[in-house]
Amino acid sequence: NNIKVIDIFSKLFKNSYNPKSFFPFEIGEHYNEKGYYEVSKIIIDQIYKKWSLTLKIEKNCLNFKKKYFV
């Protein structure tokens, strides 16, 4: 399996002064609005980095094909 994992703990909670602030009443089961917002920013950032890298690779492959096979 090639399943990618985003480590929310290291990206959000580890650097936070008060990690409980991401949960309602500072009790951790489900995120509050702030928690979901911060987690979604991390996920989007990770997806963008992966997508951006994929686009660069595909662009380089297309340039290679044009140069040598067309």
Question: Would you give an account of this structure?
Answer:
With 70 residues, the chain is an all-alpha fold. Helices cover 61% and strands 0% of the residues. The protein contains two helices and no strands. The chain is elongated. The mean pLDDT is 77.
List the keywords.
70 residues; mainly alpha; elongated
Give a brief description:
The protein has about 70 residues and is mainly alpha-helical. It has helices at about 10-15, 35-70.
SSE inventory with pairings:
Blueprint: H1 8-13, H2 33-69
Supply Rg: 19 Å
Q: Would you report the number of β strands?
A: 0
Q: In this structure, how is the largest beta sheet organized?
A: none
Q: Counting H and I runs of at least 4 residues, what is the number of helices?
A: 2
What percent strand? under 5%
Termini separation comes to: 36 Å
Helix percent band: 55-70%
User: What is the H/E string?
Assistant: HH
Whole-number mean pLDDT:
77
The shape is elongated
Pairing-aware structural class of the strands and helices? Answer: mainly alpha
Low-confidence stretches: none
